[in-house]
Automatic annotation (TrEMBL):
Belongs to the NapD family. GO terms for molecular function: signal sequence binding. Pfam families: NapD (PF03927). The lineage of its organism: Bacteria, Pseudomonadati, Pseudomonadota, Alphaproteobacteria, Sneathiellales. It comes from the Bacteria. This is Chaperone NapD.
Amino acid sequence: MTEAVNIASLIVQCRPERLADVCAEIRADATCEIHATDPCGKIVVVIEVPTTAPIAARADSFSRIAGVLSCNLVYHAIDEGADEPIEEYVQ
């Protein structure tokens, strides 16, 4: 059995002039991916971690980045993986 993975999505709203700097700080965390940005300062961040605690910690740390106005959790799921490996389809 594979280990569970917590997948969460956050919307970070920052001042438009700080967008590049905020994105750079978020990208410094290997568990985070930026999936979209908007010139108005919106950033869609996806986090993959083994437990739920780091999600809240990252949301808190993002909200403390200079220029960030808000950071909100918009999605959370736990992927428990498959009990058995999926065999490839062979013709």
